Amino acid sequence: MRLLLQRVARGSVAVNNERVSEIGAGLVILVGVGRGDTQEQADWLAEKTANLRIFEDDQGKMNRSVLESGGSALVVSQFTLYANAEKGRRPSFIEAAPPEEAEPLVTFFAKRLQFYGVPTQTGVFRAVMLVEIHNDGPVTIWLEK
To answer: Which helix (H) or strand (E) holds 13?
Structure first.
């Protein structure tokens, strides 16, 4: 699994011009699921995400987690994190898990974030989404397991 974490001032997802989820300060998390990925990987990434110290403390140092900062998470499925553009002009997505494998793991990841105490919203799996990300910092972190 691959995650692209973006620390945000706010974030939202709209489908067909209708806002379906939104958060204030916290993390927008783009989630890519690869072929053969497991719940064990998703759980490890959820725990890591919940406790990763990328929010500023009172001295301006990245020393707080999303939990400690009182932030939320917005989880958005993003199969294009598995794009391979080494050859030709059109990326290949052969390494991405098919939707019937990916959707349960994205859902599991979001539920595990909630289990660890992070208020969590989600995008809509397989929908064309307009994702609004107000990156704070900017801070963008790549996690993979």
So the answer is: strand 2-15
Q: Confirm whether 39 is a catalytic residue.
A: no
Of 38, 39, 80, 115, catalytic: 80
Residues 6+ apart with CB under 8 A from 127: 15
- Report the C-alpha gap between 97 and 53 in whole angstroms: 29
Q: For this structure, is 115 an active site residue?
A: no
Nearest to 101 by CA among 32, 44, 47, 13: 32
Of 6, 41, 49, 79, which residue is the catalytic one? 79
Does residue 121 have an active-site annotation? no
Question: Helix, strand or coil for residue 7?
Answer: strand
Which listed residue (6, 78, 120, 122) is catalytic? 78
Structural domains of the chain, with CATH = 2-138 (3.50.80.10)
Question: Which pLDDT tens digits describe the chain residue by residue (145 residues)?
Answer: 999 999 999 999 999 999 999 999 999 999 999 999 999 999 999 999 999 999 999 999 999 999 999 999 999 999 999 999 999 999 999 999 999 999 999 999 999 999 999 999 999 999 999 999 999 999 999 999 9
